[in-house]
Amino acid sequence: MKSNNSTFILEMILLIVITLVLVGYYFNKLLKKSKQPVEKPTVIDADVDLILNPANAKQQVKENYSIFNKTEYSIGETTAKNIDIKLTWTNGPTFTPVTKLYFRHLVKNDLVNNYVKVRDDTEITDENYFISNKKNEYTFLGSKFTTSTSEAVVGENYIEMYWNSISDNNKLTTVKFEITKRDLDSTLELSNSTTISVPVQLSTSENAFGTVKSTYTRYTIEPFFNDPVRISESDSNDNSFNIINDAGVEQVIDGVKKFYIVNALDSFFISSDPSGNNILSGDTNTFNTFQTKMVIFGNIESVKKSSIKLNNVQDGVETCLFEPPDFETEGVNDFLNDSLSKFSQRCQSLTPQMCENGEIFFKNTDFDDNTDYEIISALEDIYYENVCKKRVIYN
Fold first, then answer.
1. Under CATH, which architecture does the 194-314 domain have?
2. Stated pTM of the model
3. Which of 65, 143, 279, 390 pairs as cysteine with 296 (C-beta 3.0–4.6 A)?
4. Under DSSP, is residue 69 helix (H, G, I), strand (E, B) or coil?
5. In sequence order, which residues have a C-beta less than 8 Å from that of residue 112 and are 6 or more positions away?
6. pLDDT for 152-164, tens place per residue?
């Protein structure tokens, strides 16, 4: 009987020991897990676009125009409200803890020495913004500016992004960008595009044989016509014109052959209509197509890429440039590219009058013992006039 009692007591003691060991093991495991830091959420690829919003009615601009002359910053007070800021970003892989997002917009410039809030802090509670690895965007409306002088947004702008609460420990990122005074002023001009008269010149001169021939002033219209063209007034008597290349072919762009130049945003643009409602696009994806002015003027990069520079060829500087033909043998082309600087200088050292002469261009010293015979054979009878071309360079 005693033996059974002893066995039972030992079993109970062993069970208690095992239980204590297991409790201690799991408690220690939970304690270590609780001490491990929670991985914080992150964001990547944060970027900003400025969206210009033109006034809908010209009459509104006229009615308020007297207000703009009150102080040095009056224009900014009105037009800053027309600039929206679109923030884009991508959530990191650990966005689960996020239940709120906060944004704080600060500005520092000559008007304010310290960083100043220019709008109320923005809070987002929409769960669609809290999905891990998702790309998001949010637009801060210009109408929500709270600064007393809206031109205070000119200068260094900062948008700070926080999760769950606004604190240093919860800051996700800070996006820095700049708003210029031109960004503010430009919104006043969007609905006030004006057609300008194109400077067309036609003169006559006598050639060596005594007959009279017409010579047109030639232009480049960057970025759309980088080679010289001539401009011919149309018969519409409305400042429209045709563009004709050196071969005498009338140019057609996106089905349009009668063009206008309009002045807006302190820049010039090609339009298909006198009111400037459709602007020739310089954007990569829509290059050489006409887009509405809202599309072009609604994006700062589109404005920059679509604005034109009209150069009078007579205002250019003649020079001599190295422009070899494309040889069938790749080895020859590679040889020319390897010594491009030397051959370019050889052409540029000539006066424009001597550029395209009939002397042999390549010298024996241009080749060495390692130069393939095929390369030497292709180039030994090349003259200056074959590889040096007289060109006009514009400032």
1. Trefoil (2.80)
2. 0.43
3. 279
4. helix
5. 152
6. 677 788 889 999 9
Strands 278-280 and 317-322: unpaired
Domain ranges of the chain: 43-186, 194-314, 316-393
Q: What's the one-letter identity of residue 317? A: V
**From 2.160.20, 1.10.287, 2.60.120, 2.60.40, which CATH number describes the 43-186 domain?**
2.60.40
Residue whose C-alpha is closest to residue 181's, from 301, 77, 60: 77
Residue 221 has pLDDT above 50, yes or no: yes
Long-range pairs for 248-255: beta carbons < 8 A, 24 or more residues apart: 251/225, 253/224, 253/280, 253/288, 253/290, 254/280, 254/288, 254/289, 254/290
**Could you give the angle at the alpha carbon of 268 between the alpha carbons of 310 and 64, nearest 5°?**
155
The pLDDT mean for the chain works out to 75
pLDDT at residue 188 is higher than 50: no
Q: Write the CB contacts of 270 (distance below 8 Å, at least 6 apart in sequence).
A: 221, 224, 259, 260, 261, 279, 280, 308
Distance CA 266, CA 67 (A): 21
CB 204 within 8 A of CB 214: yes
SS3 251: coil
- For 129-183, write each residue's pLDDT tens digit: 999 999 999 988 887 877 655 556 777 888 899 999 999 999 998 888 777 665 5
> What Cα–Cα distance (Å) separates residue 395 from each residue in 231, 310, 313, 318, 385?
20, 11, 11, 12, 26
pLDDT digits (tens, 9 = 90+) for 259-271: 888 888 778 899 9
- For residues 220 and 286, the model is more confident at 286
Asked if residues 350 and 358 have their Cβ atoms less than 8 Å apart, the reply is no
Task: Please write the tens of the pLDDT for every residue from 225-267.
Answer: 988 887 776 767 777 888 888 677 889 999 999 988 888 877 8
Q: What's phi and psi for 328, nearest 5 deg?
A: -65, -30
Residue 210 region, left (φ>0) first, then alpha (ψ -120 to 50), else beta? left
> Which residues does residue 312 pair with via DSSP β-bridges, in sequence order?
219
Give SS3 for 34.
Answer: helix
